[in-house]
Design a protein that fits this description.
alpha/beta, 2 domains, globular, 8-stranded parallel beta barrel, 409 residues, 9-stranded mixed beta sheet
């Protein structure tokens, strides 16, 4: 082999090993992470349990959904439905009890008040709650909360309505912003320490929540601005933050395609990223177990569930999102978090078709290494190496079409 060929071969070898600093560094994407700059508090990631409409979760599925070990999703929030008929409330209790015992945050949403209290005398097709029945309705919601509490499944929060801006043929009830304000003015004080969620708009209409936030009385009785993402993409809500209200995404599913279809699963990763960047405190998927859910009908974690686990298992309630370079490359999306002890979690999604080299550049903290798990078309929450932190930096590669979570050691 000639000298020129030998040098070429060595250059190729060194480049493959990442030893030619200038060449490798030119394609690296630096992600600056500042633990001292704090954004929102994270309440958690969750899903809806459909007991009463579909079969309840089994005890094994509760473990799969809410456990934090390998092979589990790590959800920390569960949403449930408040039936208009109190005789059916017991349906919600078994899974709520099991979830509560695991430390899960519980909240409940009504689809409709009892039919006799509504303008159309029906549970379905919208209609409105008659003002003379506002007091009865408040008592109805509180009775459900008391029932769950007496069954060792106390609620963290209760919603006033599901999608008040949508009129389907099934169970539903319409509310205007003015009606929500009037209800909270007259009866909001009854809820005491129980957190109140509103309006849970079908498409996160701020025109439904702005009047509540801008009313000096009603705003005192609202704790969480909830909304759904059927149509819009997540967006920041400065008014809610200014009023010191949390913002929760309380229901969405991106489509009803098989949850193990990777092409359809990846948009879930993008939406989770957008929700966190929009300063949401919580993200709650629609059905936990469904063909398009986090767990499929056979009780196994789906690809969508594995993507959720990249967040939920590692970013636990009480963590805060911290400053990080959010889009270091056109196809790489990053958020970072820490807990009160200084543990860091970084989630990096590569939506492109090429492997990306990233440099985690720490602007504070005492981290010595990061461990990585990844989900892609080929892997599901699998361990993918440990990366040393040298002089405040750790260098790693992320595969195309993958979601990667780096947890500090």
């Amino acid at each position: 082999m000639t000298r020129r060929r030998t040098l070429s071969a060595l250059c190729a070898l060194f480049t493959g090993l990442g030893l030619l600093g200038a060449t490798a560094q030119s394609s690296a994407q630096t992600i600056n992470i500042d633990p001292g700059t704090v954004h929102q508090l994270i309440r958690g990631f969750g899903g809806h349990n459909g007991a009463g409409w579909i079969n309840d979760l089994t005890p094994a599925e509760v473990d799969t959904a809410f456990g934090t070990e390998s092979g589990q999703v790590g959800l920390s929030i569960m949403r449930m439905r408040i039936d208009s008929n109190s005789a059916k409330w017991a349906t919600q209790l078994p899974t709520a009890q099991r979830a509560k015992a695991k430390g899960v945050t519980l909240f409940a949403t009504p689809w409709s008040p009892p039919a006799a209290w509504k303008s159309n005398n029906s549970l379905n097709n919208g209609g409105t709650l008659l003002p003379e029945n506002y007091g009865k309705y408040a008592d109805h919601l509180l009775s459900f909360a008391n029932y769950m509490s007496s069954g060792n499944a106390a609620l963290h929060a209760i919603s006033l309505a599901n999608e008040p801006d949508y009129t389907p043929t099934y169970e539903s009830c319409n509310w205007t912003a003015a009606q929500l304000v009037s209800f909270l003015q007259a009866h909001g004080s009854k809820f005491g320490s129980l957190k109140v969620i509103a309006p849970e708009s079908f498409n996160f209409k701020k025109s439904l929540s702005d009047p509540i936030l801008n009313d000096s009385v009603a705003v005192q009785h609202l704790d969480i601005v909830g909304g759904h993402l059927y149509g819009p993409t997540p967006s920041d809500y400065p008014l809610a933050r200014a009023k010191r209200k949390e913002v929760w995404m309380t229901e969405h599913f991106t489509d009803n395609v098989d949850a193990n279809n990777w092409t359809s699963a990846m948009p879930v990763a993008r939406e989770l990223h957008r929700a966190m960047v929009a300063n949401y405190n919580a993200y709650v998927w629609w059905y936990i177990r469904r063909s398009y859910g986090l767990i499929t009908d056979d009780g196994r974690i789906s690809k969508r569930g594995s993507i959720m686990a990249q967040y939920a298992r590692y970013i636990r309630p009480g963590y805060v999102r911290i400053a990080a370079t959010e889009n270091p490359h056109t196809d790489v999306f990053v958020t970072a978090y820490r807990n009160s002890a200084g543990k860091l979690v970084v989630v990096a999604t590569n939506t492109g078709t090429s492997q990306r080299r990233i440099v985690l550049n720490l602007l504070g903290g005492t981290v010595t290494s990061f461990s990585k798990t990844r989900t892609s078309a080929s892997y599901s929450n699998e361990a993918a190496g440990t990366y040393a932190v040298v002089d405040g930096q750790a260098t790693a590669y992320i595969d195309p079409g993958s979601v990667n979570t780096f947890v500090s050691q």
